[in-house]
Design goal:
This protein has 152 residues and is α+β, with helices and mostly antiparallel strands. The protein contains six helices and eight strands, in the order ββαββααββαββαα. The chain has a single domain, classed as 3-Layer(aba) Sandwich (Chemotaxis protein chec).
Length: 152
């Protein structure tokens, strides 16, 4: 979708204004502006294009014969959390989406936020949460060597 991190803004009505690069990348890959906005912890926001979220739901609803006995329970908990924090939404004409009520305060969705493409969704973090995650994500010497082995 896009690389790097983009900054966005959440207004006083809790609408996330998608940066133009993010909005255009999202609409280029997914013509439908419908999204599912959710979280698994309440500490961040995940914006899934509806087609991507439907694929997640299909994977979670399929039994796995080789799975551990608790597999079904964990899948149920994942969906329970996602639906607790989640809501359907769509990009409006100005490229905004409404943050669901359960995520507004807990995830710190006010003013400046950071957006990053993460596999099948856009991860949205408050500025404070982003700085905290980045400070804890510094690579040590061994990890830098591992990255070098992969050509990074």
């Amino acid at each position: 979708m896009f690389r790097g991190v983009q900054t966005g803004n959440v207004d006083d009505k809790f609408r996330l204004k998608m940066p133009a690069l993010v909005r255009s990348a999202l609409l280029a890959k997914h013509e439908n502006p419908a999204v599912f906005i959710t979280s698994l912890s309440g500490e961040d926001v995940r914006v899934y294009p509806v087609s991507e979220w439907e694929a997640v739901e299909r994977r979670l609803s399929q039994p796995n014969e080789n799975a551990a006995p608790m597999d079904g329970d964990i899948k149920t908990k994942i969906l329970l959390q996602a639906n607790h924090y989640g809501a359907d939404g769509a990009l409006d004409n100005q490229g905004r989406i409404l943050i669901p009520v359960p995520l507004r305060e807990g995830a710190g969705m006010r003013s400046e936020v950071y957006l990053q493409w993460s596999r099948n969704h856009i991860l949205v973090l408050s500025a404070e949460a982003y700085r905290t995650r980045m400070s804890g994500a510094k690579l040590n010497k061994d990890e830098l060597a591992f990255a070098a082995n992969w050509g990074v």
